[in-house]
C-alpha cells in the first residue's frame, strides 16, 4: 500500500497552496515554512478585540475570534480562494483543526451549544456546489463537542460577491436578508456564528439581527480571517 502511495505521489504530488513546493508526508495544505509565515491574529481576550469592536453600537456580540489576517495577495487570500472557488474543502478542515487547537488551549467557546454558518443563497450554492463553511463548521463542532446547524438560518436575498463591492456598499448592505427557519431550539442558547472572512461585518450583523429574534439567545462570532485595514 505504501508503495502505491509513494508511486502516486511521484506523478501527482501534494503541493503547498502558497509556494507550490512538494509537501512532506507530515505536511498538509501548506509546507511548514509557509504555515509559520501565516499572519496569525493574536486574540488573548475574546470579549474585547478587533472582531467584537466591529459590532459596537450595531448589534450585541458576546465573544469574537478570528485566526488570520487577510490582505490582497497574501497567503491567507490564497487559502481562502482555494477553499471558496477551487473546491478545496480540505482547506476548511485544516483551518478548523488549527482553530480548535487554539481555542482548547485558551479554554474558549467550550460552552457553545450550536455552531451556525453564514448561509449561501440557494442560487449561489447551486452554482458553487458547496458552502465553503460546511466542513469547517462540522469539524469545529466535533472538536468543540457541540452541534453544527446548517439549516436554521437561510439567506433570502442574492447579493454581489463581497470582494466586488466598495467598502461603503459592504457597510451599508441592507439588502442582504436572512431568515430563521425555527427558533425554539435556540432559546437561551449560546450560538457560534461562523464565516470565512470578515471585512465590514455587515453580513454577520444582518445574521445577528435575525438570530436576536430568539428569546435569551447569546451570539458569538468566529471567522477564518479578518481583513486587515491598510
Strands side by side in the biggest sheet: 1-7-6-2-3
Overall body shape: globular
Structural class determined from secondary elements: alpha/beta
Radius of gyration, in angstroms, nearest whole number: 18 Å
Mean of residue pLDDT values: 89
Percentage beta strand: 15-25%
* Unreliable residue stretches: 2-11, 162-173
Q: Classify the helix fraction into a percent range.
A: 25-40%
Main sheet properties:
5 strands, parallel
Please count the beta strands (DSSP E, at least 2 residues each): 7
Measured distance between first and last alpha carbons = 50 Å
Number of helices: 9
Structure description:
- Helix content is 35%, strand content 17%.
- It is α/β, with parallel strands linked by helices.
- Helix 5 (90-106) runs parallel beside helix 7 (134-143).
- The chain starts with a helix and ends with a strand.
Keywords:
5-stranded parallel sheet, two-stranded antiparallel sheet, 7 strands, disordered N terminus
Secondary structure layout plus pairing:
Layout: H1 2-11, H2 32-36, H3 50-54, E1 64-70, H4 75-85, H5 90-106, E2 114-117, H6 122-128, H7 134-143, E3 147-148, E4 153-155, H8 167-171, E5 178-180, E6 190-198, H9 202-211, E7 218-227
Helix pairs in contact: 5-7
Amino acid at each position: 500500500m505504501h508503495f502505491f502511495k509513494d508511486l502516486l505521489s511521484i506523478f501527482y504530488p501534494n503541493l503547498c497552496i502558497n509556494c507550490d513546493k512538494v509537501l512532506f508526508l507530515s505536511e498538509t495544505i501548506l509546507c511548514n515554512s509557509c504555515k509559520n509565515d501565516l499572519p496569525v491574529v493574536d486574540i488573548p481576550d475574546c470579549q474585547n478585540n478587533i472582531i467584537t469592536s466591529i459590532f459596537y453600537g450595531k448589534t450585541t456580540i458576546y465573544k469574537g475570534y478570528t485566526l488570520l489576517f487577510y490582505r490582497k495577495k497574501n497567503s491567507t487570500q490564497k487559502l481562502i480562494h482555494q477553499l471558496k472557488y477551487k473546491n478545496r474543502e480540505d482547506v476548511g478542515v485544516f483551518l478548523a483543526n488549527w482553530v480548535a487547537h487554539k481555542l482548547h488551549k485558551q479554554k474558549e467557546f467550550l460552552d457553545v451549544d450550536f455552531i451556525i454558518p453564514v448561509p449561501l443563497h440557494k442560487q449561489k450554492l447551486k452554482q458553487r456546489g458547496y458552502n465553503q463553511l460546511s466542513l469547517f463548521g462540522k469539524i469545529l463542532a466535533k472538536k468543540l463537542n457541540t452541534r453544527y446547524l446548517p439549516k436554521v438560518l437561510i439567506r433570502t436575498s442574492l447579493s454581489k460577491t463581497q470582494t466586488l463591492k466598495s467598502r461603503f456598499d459592504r457597510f451599508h448592505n441592507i439588502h442582504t436578508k436572512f431568515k430563521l427557519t425555527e427558533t425554539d431550539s435556540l432559546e437561551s442558547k449560546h450560538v457560534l456564528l461562523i464565516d470565512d472572512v470578515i471585512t465590514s461585518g455587515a453580513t454577520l450583523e444582518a445574521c445577528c439581527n435575525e438570530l436576536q429574534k430568539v428569546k435569551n439567545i447569546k451570539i458569538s462570532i468566529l471567522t477564518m480571517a479578518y481583513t486587515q485595514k491598510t
